[in-house]
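Example (one chain per record):
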Amino acid sequence: MQFDVFPNPDPGRTDDRPYIVVLQHNHLIDLSSVVVAPLVKAESVLPLAGLMPTVVVDGARFHAVVPDLGAISKRHLKGAVANVSTFRDDLIKALDRLFTGL
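Predicted structure:
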């Protein structure tokens, strides 16, 4: 489940944030919620250095908006559309930067 990409369950944000990515590690999968970050279309925003890594979903580029991460109930996650674990290092670096400043 970590780094799985799901359609954004918030119908009011699907135009600008069509997907969310699970950042929480699989060791905590038994919790009822998971930590996610929204994915925004790469051409629609200038990324914050070190905080918004680029990922590719179905051939399209998105930025993971790590500063906007939050928790969501797993029951809202319907049908993973991709897994972006190939971008793991960049996503982890963004989390490190957010929480430690490094």
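Caption: Helices lie at 88-100.
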